[in-house]
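INTERNAL AUDIT FORM
Audit reference: QA-55
Scope: verify that the stored structure record matches its stored sequence.
Auditor: D.O.
Record contents follow.
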Amino acid sequence: MAADGWRSFPDAPKIVHPPPGPRSRALLARQAELETDAVAYPGYFPIAVAEGRGSTIEDVDGNRFIDWVAGISVLNLGHRHPRLEAALRAQSERVWHALELPTEARIRFLEELIPVLPGGLAGRAKVLFTVTGADAVETAVSLAEYATGRAGVVAFSGAYHGVHGGAVNLTAGRRYRATSAFVGGRVVRVPFPDPYRSVLGADEGSAGTIRYLEHLVRDPASGVDDLAAVVVEPIQGEGGYVVPPDDFLPELRAFCDRHGLLLIADEVQSGLGRTGKFWAVDHAKVTPDIVCIAKSIGGGIPLSLVAYRADLVKELPRGFHLGTYRGNPLGLAVGVEVLRELKTTDLIARTARRGDRLIDRFRSFQADHPSIGDVRGRGFMIGIEFVDSPTRRTPWGDGAKAMRRALLQRGVLMHTAGAFDQVLRFMAPLVIEDELLERGLAAFEAALDEIDPAPERTVPAPAPPAPRSLAPRTAPVGAGGRPSPILPSGAD
């Protein structure tokens, strides 16, 4: 880390050439010639990346962006964290690939991971390495069906569990299943208890969802045969950063216990400090039978795995799951330092505190802009839902996408989620500097005033920029001159 405490480009956001700049356009055009049309992200963020540093990205035209995407929660520790960079360099000088043979990196990783698994899994789990997040979910379901001797799994509306092979059956979005040949798995879809868009009585907590699940299992005419497991995101990711009622996961755990079903927690996006707890299920003090881990565990190096109760199965047959790149030593060496950084610093506690203040700030924008229907989240997993009106609550996907474009032009990267792309999601690296949060919030408010001018106030003309220190401030000033600290003096 630099002497002043910064890892990011200190002058971000900085726009030299309105994106896409000329060099980015050339590389994007060349990519389009050489790669499939199925590539998606250049359509959302038409820039060519030159360097990532901390919580910022520089493109090939010299523009610098505040990164509130973090590789879709892959980079919880930011771009090129020095601790991870050193581990990667050291491992690269020893061994890059070892199949399933033990290496020091592999054993260190397992010894670091198993004690911090959620709830009763800590210290009492087995690990099965996989290749991707979706591969982890698919393997978890296969494991559950093998352990129970039954087939069939409950998944939820709005769920995203990847598009790999059979995992696409668990993902709710039609657009993902429409392009896959691997459909037809035994999946029972149940509405997720969304407090903002109640389908089965979310106004009663989770009672409606649990009642419906009981009906499916108990009623011999429900049309549902024996089930093996329930797979759930503790907070939905691609579904729109939906936070269920507090009683949902405990009631779901109790439902599974009553009927001999296994509970699979998909922590691919929500795990490793993202929500202000080590695991998102920790908020509910719930122990899953199986947990799926990927994304940030490798710090940007592909790494994924399934952890499960050691007593779940007496023995798995050799070759139960295969994949040449599973448990790659480079990813494992980086994963060791990801876990150590989270365990030995106050980063997760800071994420919880700063996340609460960020939610308050986004809600202050909601007060002036009825196009923001809901602000929800935990830690640095925050969703801002856009609607046509606060009473009708019709999703306004065009508004959220217009915000994404307006933010890009101001040097902030922020992505959408939800069935209609109506939710902007805040998922910045947990290590982002407070000053970059303030600058990003100012850009967010300016973009919001552009796409949805607040009718009851006049947006003041921007004042000439005053010299400002990059050192932490006791009372940062947000857009419009309002004191709006992310971390007030003495908070840390």
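Auditor finding: record pair retrieved intact. The two ends are 18 Å apart (CA to CA).
Action required: none
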